[in-house]
Amino acid sequence: MMLSGAFSLVRRSAWRIPLTTLAVGVGGIFGYHFLYFSAMALAPAVEASLINYLWPLLIVVLSPLVLAGYRLRPRHIFGALLGLAGAGLIATGGHLSLRYEYLSGYLMMAGAALIWALYSLLTKRVPHFSTESVAAFCAVSGLLALAFYLLSGGSLVQVQALSAHDWLVIVLCGLGPMGSAFFFWDAALKRGDPRRIGSLAYLTPLLSTLNLVIFARLPLTPVSFAAMALIISGALVGSSVRSDQVLSN
């Protein structure tokens, strides 16, 4: 987040936004990641990841509640549920075991999914802002993350002890999933229908799986093919929204 936030240091216009908009952005980016990583520390990664995949479905379901002029059709819900089922197969491999002792982690991950869905929708409701302002969201979120790290017992000595490989991974994450992805996501939401985007978001676990197949030589199993079929079907069904179904913007 700090890497992507550095863009705001050279683009002063990124900070020309109302405080309420900044609060929505920081609350979404920092709040989501704080709960996400907290949940990962308290619950098994497989089950926690499955709960995290609720956020695209929540975007679809909450669209008419948060945004004026949007209403749900059965195919929106059906498409999102197909995508969730496919994501669930990828995350669990067809085996799921939710246990009560990890309830706090499960609830945190559910909270993270809800926060990301609300952030995604509220950015369409607040006064219009440039996508470059996402850098300001990231800068403040990064500073908050650093503050929580230090307050929780972390030290700068531990940071300095990171290897060159560790720094390379951090930089790549900062430029990719923790950086440019935020800008692309904001640009997509500004230009697209959140009901479509919510359904198409389930392509993320599918693309991750294909990435592992290509680069890590992960074998494709019948469960993988079933998950792909569900996700692609869900994306096709959920994204088939006619323009006349948006009553107003």
Mean pLDDT across all amino acids: 83
Can you tell me the residue ranges where pLDDT is under 50 for at least 5 consecutive residues?
Answer: 243-249
Q: Work out the strand percent.
A: under 5%
Q: C-alpha Rg, in Å?
A: 19 Å
Tell the overall outline: globular
User: How many E-type strands?
Assistant: 0
Cα-to-Cα separation, first versus last residue: 30 Å
Oligomeric grouping of the chains = single chain
Please, how many helices?
13
Task: Give the SSE order as H and E letters.
Answer: HHHHHHHHHHHHH
- Supply the helix-strand structural class: mainly alpha
Q: How much helicity do the residues have?
A: over 70%
Sheet with most strands? none
Task: Give an overview in words.
This protein is mostly helical. It is 72% helix and 0% strand. It has 13 helices and no strands. The chain has helices at 2-5, 7-10, 19-42, 45-52, 54-66, 74-92, 103-122, 134-151, 156-160, 164-191, 194-200, 203-215, 222-238. Helix 4 (45-52) packs parallel to helix 7 (103-122) and helix 5 (54-66) packs antiparallel against helix 6. The longest helix is centred in the last third of the chain and has 28 residues, at 164-191. The model is unreliable at 243-249 (pLDDT under 50).
